[in-house]
Specification:
Number of domains: 1
Oligomer: single chain
Largest sheet: 5 strands, mixed
Distance between the termini: 20 Å
Strand content: 25-35%
CATH topology: 60s Ribosomal Protein L30, Chain: A
Order of helices and strands: HEEEEHEHEE
Number of strands: 7
CATH superfamily: RutC-like
CATH class: Alpha Beta
Number of helices: 3
Helix content: 25-40%
Strand order of the largest sheet: 1-2-7-5-6
Shape: globular
């Protein structure tokens, strides 16, 4: 079970909070599940604010991306009613890294999410991806991750 594997890694899925705007946490369309951008929140609070290349290290950014991925997984769990056998594959991740204009390691930061998905789902966790440096993210967090997942409808 996925949650057992997370526990072995000393990780856990967070409780879902309400969406902070005029959107939903996920949307199903056929066999695809679109997960809204998830911030590095734990217990409703940001785990990391700041900018890569300024006051946030690459390692901290990696961990924040991993926290975002845990929030993505919590959204997936809600969408599939906790039945992880319904996940066919992770199709795509989009990663947004709040950083200075000269910071060139956004892909290394987003690996925090990518590595977790591959660790949990194996080959089915390998995905297409974008990793983009941006000047601003909600509540000044350092990372945001969105996902598209194929499920058994």
């Amino acid at each position: 079970m996925l949650e057992s594997r997370l526990a072995e890694m000393n990780l856990a899925l967070p409780e879902l909070g309400a969406a902070a705007g005029s959107f939903v946490g996920y949307k199903k369309s056929g066999n695809l599940l679109f997960i809204s951008g998830q911030l590095p929140l734990k217990d409703g609070r940001p785990t990391l604010v700041g900018r890569l290349g300024e006051d946030v290290t690459l390692e901290q950014g990696y961990e924040a991306a991993q926290q975002c991925a845990l929030n993505v997984l919590a959204q997936i769990k809600a969408a599939i009613d906790g039945r992880w056998d319904r996940v066919v594959q992770v199709v795509r991740l989009g990663g947004f890294v709040r950083c200075t204009p000269d910071f060139a390691d956004a892909p290394k930061v987003v690996n925090g999410a990518s590595d977790l998905f591959v660790s949990l789902f194996g080959a089915a966790g390998a995905h297409a991806r974008a990793a983009v440096g941006v000047s601003s993210l909600p509540v000044n967090v350092a990372v945001e991750i969105e996902a598209v997942v194929e499920i058994i409808a």
